[in-house]
Amino acid sequence: MSTKDSHDHLFRYGFSRPDVAREHFEAQLPAAVVAAVDWTGLEPVPGTFIDPELERTESDILYRAPLKSGDELLLYVLFEHQRSRDTQMPFRLLQYMVRIWEAWLRSHGRRRKTTRLPFIVPMVLYNGTQRWTTSRQFADLFADGPVFDALKRNIPTFQHELQDLSQTPDEVLH
């Protein structure tokens, strides 16, 4: 079994267990979000949202977490197997987030009285050989300057969470 397959298996096994996923989410999310979630209802959502041509370098998993307010939070974890950092990661994540919202609207939107979308927290677990040094801000994909300043209100604003495993020895991950 290759290192990539080994890490993918470990990721899939660990994150398929709600108790393991919950520990990770509680450690990564802001305290206000952790307090707002009804963790007893945490459940994986079947399916994948990655591009088929990227299946060799990525795995993903989506969790639904009900909020105590009655809304829901979607926790999207992308496990990045490639050995180099991806400067376009915020754009790829935005594509995946749109796919998640589209699927959510197909299955929930028509039955709900509200048009509010669920929050999505995009998280990347990076397993490259070098530290992640590229920006996690979507807006950083655009040229800076007066045009950016004038049009920034038209740019989606988000930053993905990142857990950089590049300096973690394989023995610790297994």
Tell me about this structure.
With 174 residues, the chain is α/β, with parallel strands linked by helices. It is built from six helices and five strands; from the N terminus they run αααβββαβαβα. A five-stranded mixed β-sheet has the order 1-2-3-4-5, covered by helices on one side.
Summed up, the helix count is: 6
Q: Ranges with pLDDT <50 over ≥5 residues?
A: none
Radius of gyration: 17 Å
Q: SSE string, helix = H, strand = E?
A: HHHEEEHEHEH
Termini separation comes to 13 Å
Alpha-beta content class: alpha/beta
Arithmetic mean pLDDT: 85
Strand content: 15-25%
**Helical residues, percent:** 25-40%
Strand order of the largest sheet: 1-2-3-4-5
Instruction: Compute the number of strand runs.
Output: 5
Shape: globular
Largest beta sheet, briefly? 5 strands, mixed
By oligomeric state, this entry counts as: single chain
Set down the secondary structure blueprint.
Elements: H1 3-15, H2 18-28, H3 31-36, E1 43-45, E2 58-66, E3 72-80, H4 89-109, E4 119-126, H5 146-151, E5 161-164, H6 170-173
Parallel strand pairs: 3-4, 4-5
Antiparallel strand pairs: 1-2, 2-3
